[in-house]
């Protein structure tokens, strides 16, 4: 009976191909068949319930036998997220697939094409009237009468252009970027999103927290440090030191140091302080002068890797043992890969907030952590009108330790 229902569902016009052969097998809507249900497996290996033996046929609520509690775990509630739609642009398909897999839903269908003159056309192929949409194709969904539009942009472009005295790493011929004529592009992007109908922004690890003030709509800035925390806790680190490559990264490095301390890791904290007027860099070790230690450089973006390269050089001069680099957003320009492969950095850890560049795939020094599960949980909490900050409350409760007092210039 269950197999027949599944075959009928596949033939119906409501069936939407999704993440793979079986990742999008979601039950029909209650309006179409209130009693039918099916399973939803995703590519990452997570299932909606315990594994079913291969010889056991697909079951339906219409079978004669009453459903047991164990049987109910095999199925996804077809109406749980029926007013939620997730759309992806071409360069975020993989991350969107992971998010949908964690939400046990399929991606919304949209067509994106180009005219001969390069203009882009976007057509929404699903009904979105009255739906809560999490999207990239903003204005097209607004015109289709979506109830709300949440823009999920893990990497907020132009976030480094939030002040006139922006850092100019990675920009050729850049002295003029510190002049009063420098545009505040981040603010312009914020206005553009709002003009196109965005109701909420979800992003990850903004370069400048002050950027949230550029928006009139709610902004959810996700703290992703739990991902590298779990990763490095699994490493056999020797007397580690957390290093901020610049004063602008010191707060982020301090938060990571504090979380490691809260998990029982006795580690040091250091920062590189640049005096841009004098063109000098000073190395400040806030905890312990001992070296021959493993170092973890913590930053938000690795683009040209110039700052990483300088910091690695300084750490080597002070006797560092192994040097790791964590950056949330891996822009990884070709010049960055040359520096990563040439310099003495042991490993560079990033997230998949940006598509992984093709020229970086051959490097054995890059590790990518997935934001899929975190973003899916945030989106679900927004959809169900639950607190997003509660996700990170456990870490926040533990972070009661104080910033180390006293500095030692090495």
Topology overview:
Elements: H1 2-11, H2 69-72, E1 84-86, H3 93-103, E2 110-114, E3 120-124, E4 132-135, H4 138-143, E5 148-153, H5 185-195, E6 200-204, E7 219-222, H6 226-233, E8 241-244, H7 250-262, E9 268-275, E10 280-285, E11 295-302, H8 306-317, E12 323-330, H9 334-342, E13 347-351, E14 366-369, H10 372-383, H11 393-398, E15 408-409
Please explain how this structure is put together.
There is one protein chain. By secondary structure, the protein is α/β, with parallel strands linked by helices. It folds into three domains: 1-80, no CATH class; 84-222, Rossmann fold; 226-369 and 401-409, Rossmann fold (3-Layer(aba) Sandwich), CATH 3.40.50.2020. It is 25% helix and 19% strand. It is built from eleven helices and 15 strands. The chain has helices spanning 2-11, 69-72, 93-103, 138-143, 185-195, 226-233, 250-262, 306-317, 334-342, 372-383, 393-398; strands spanning 84-86, 110-114, 120-124, 132-135, 148-153, 200-204, 219-222, 241-244, 268-275, 280-285, 295-302, 323-330, 347-351, 366-369, 408-409. Strands 14-13-12-11-8-9-10-15 form an eight-stranded mixed β-sheet, sandwiched between helices. Strands 1-4-5-6-7 form a five-stranded parallel β-sheet. Helix 7 links the parallel strand 8 and strand 9 (268-275). Helix 3 crosses helix 10. The chain is elongated. The N and C termini lie far apart (74 Å).
